[in-house]
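User: Last request for today: this protein with adenosine monophosphate, please.
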Amino acid sequence: MAYEYDDQNIFAKILRGEIPNSTVLETEHCLAFRDITPLAPDHVLVIPKGPYVTYDHFALEASAAEIVDFTRTIGKVCDMLGVRPGFDGDGFRLIVNSGTNGVQEVPHMHTHIMAGRWLGHMLPSAKQD
Ligand code: AMP
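Assistant: Here's the final one, the structure of the complex with adenosine monophosphate:
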């Protein structure tokens, strides 16, 4: 088994500048931009610039520099959004959908940062489509 990266996915096109995005922050290894269909007042996606498909792919194969930059970028975006608990923010949620059961739509690893409203409990208790 191997990870197969589809370089025609929409986030690859964003990284190549082929389609526009609403950038919040760009770093050496990452891009953070607003989700086109926000599910919360603040809904930002953080993606690595490298060709990683799923979270496990990134966690197992990315370099230490990429992983540190990714984690720091999430922290910086939370700071920029003013959502840090204990720093005048009301909190946030990170979501990383991976694969079929994770209902991942775009096959380029990304973390959703969602904030700006009460987000409810983590998952519905019953199975849903
Ligand atoms: P996921 O289901 O975790 O793969 O989430 C993919 C996310 O990408 C969804 O929340 C979409 O709204 C978002 N999305 C798709 N196309 C774009 C785009 N062109 N710009 C910003 N966000 C997008």
